[in-house]
């Protein structure tokens, strides 16, 4: 069963009447229907927001507005936003080093910066440590101790290797900077201010959020819903504004979208087509000046939140499948949504 809600927004004023812009999302719906059948997906959902108005919201298969699933690396954007909030408050800096917070860390790990940890340029191994996601044998602290005891893959700042290890260390640094658990930081800086009541790090729990865990997987352990994550991308598309108030400054949102790899050579990446990486987000397209046009945080399970700065579109595709399986479909979905919103069909209904 599929529930469909189409919203008509973006009213165009004239001298004596208003005409509503009607977006024809038929190609998008057809594409997802085909994706469902081709890949035998049990469910999926998509929301598209433009200029603060929902212009498309649809649920496929078994998915509903309350469907809550693990979102894997789509977690990275959320965790990076939590850190950016702490940076804006002056509680941390992207230039802070591991050694400032963990003086017992091995000497070669001490110069690694918080920014490098959240842009995959830390030198830590691309292979996620076994402690990530292990809620039985580790706490966040002991997991980080194990990560820091491993051999560096390359000198910090000299390469890009996509990994969950770095953000785990960065998340622990945030707990030391604030005196709070990562779960409390995440609630204070992300889920509460952005109205995300169905989001937490308890991916294996069947209980409703918020469920705290001893070793939250900072880079990939979030479970969430379509509408919760929609608040995040809408805030980003609105340059840090949320519900009429600043969540982050526009400058900080823009800073997160810059290429924080600083052109470091790629050692490992799951996205060969990206134009670098910011803090917790991919740079999918850029303009002639190198400024990010589209950013995203697609995860291993193929959930894909993205923002297109050129069109003002914020969107989330929620699914629990495989990025390697759906990669081409996701890129086509981004393109199809962009095509719809840049070529609207005007209705002949006047109000």
General description of the model:
There is one protein chain. The protein has 351 residues and is an alpha+beta fold. It has a seven-stranded antiparallel beta sheet with strand order 1-5-4-15-14-13-12. The protein has helices spanning 26-38, 75-88, 98-101, 114-117, 140-148, 165-178, 182-191, 226-237, 250-257, 323-341, and strands at 4-5, 11-13, 18-22, 43-50, 53-61, 69-70, 160-161, 223-224, 241-242, 245-246, 266-268, 282-286, 292-296, 304-308, 313-318, 345-350.
**Number of helical segments with 4 or more residues:** 10
Report the average pLDDT across residues: 93
Number of strands: 16
User: What is the count of distinct domains?
Assistant: 1
**What structural class do the secondary elements suggest?**
alpha+beta
Low-confidence stretches: 1-19, 346-351
Sheet of most strands: 7 strands, antiparallel
Q: Reading side by side through the largest sheet, how are the strands ordered?
A: 1-5-4-15-14-13-12
CATH T-level fold name: Beta-lactamase
Overall helicity: 25-40%
Encode the helix/strand succession as letters.
EEEHEEEHHHHEHHEHEEHEEEEEHE
What portion of residues belong to β-strands?
A: 15-25%
Q: Indicate the radius of gyration in whole angstroms.
A: 20 Å
Shape: globular
């Amino acid at each position: 069963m599929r529930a469909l809600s189409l919203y008509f927004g973006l009213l165009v004023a004239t001298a004596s009447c208003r005409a509503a812009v009607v977006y024809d999302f038929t190609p998008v719906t057809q594409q997802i229907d085909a994706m469902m059948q081709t890949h035998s997906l049990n469910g999926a959902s998509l929301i598209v927001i433009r200029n603060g108005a929902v212009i498309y919201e649809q649920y496929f298969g078994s998915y509903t507005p309350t469907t809550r699933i693990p979102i894997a690396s789509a977690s990275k954007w959320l965790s990076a936003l939590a850190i950016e909030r702490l940076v804006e408050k002056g509680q941390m800096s992207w230039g802070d080093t591991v050694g400032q917070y963990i003086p017992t860390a091995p000497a070669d790990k001490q110069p690694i910066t918080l920014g490098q940890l959240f842009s995959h340029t830390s030198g830590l191994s691309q292979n996620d440590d076994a402690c990530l996601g292990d809620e039985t044998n580790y706490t966040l602290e002991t997991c980080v101790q194990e990560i820091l005891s491993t051999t560096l893959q390359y000198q910090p700042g000299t390469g890009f290797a996509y990994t969950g290890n770095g953000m785990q260390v960065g998340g622990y640094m945030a707990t030391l900077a604030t005196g709070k658990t990562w779960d409390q930081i995440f609630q204070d800086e992300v889920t509460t201010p952005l109205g995300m009541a169905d989001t937490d790090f308890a991916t294996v729990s069947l209980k409703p959020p918020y469920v705290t865990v001893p070793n939250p997987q900072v880079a990939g352990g979030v479970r969430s819903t379509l509408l919760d994550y929609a608040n995040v991308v809408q805030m980003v598309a609105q340059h840090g504004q949320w519900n009429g108030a600043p969540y982050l400054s526009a400058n900080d949102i823009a800073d997160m979208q810059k290429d924080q790899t600083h052109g470091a050579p790629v050692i490992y990446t799951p996205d060969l087509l990206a134009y670098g990486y910011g803090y917790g987000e991919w740079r999918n397209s850029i303009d002639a000046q190198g400024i990010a046009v589209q950013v995203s945080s697609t995860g291993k399970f193929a959930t894909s939140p993205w923002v297109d700065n050129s069109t003002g579109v914020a969107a989330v595709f929620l699914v629990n499948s495989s990025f390697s399986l759906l990669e081409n479909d996701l890129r086509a979905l981004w393109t199809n949504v962009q095509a719809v919103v840049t070529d609207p069909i005007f209705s002949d209904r006047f109000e």
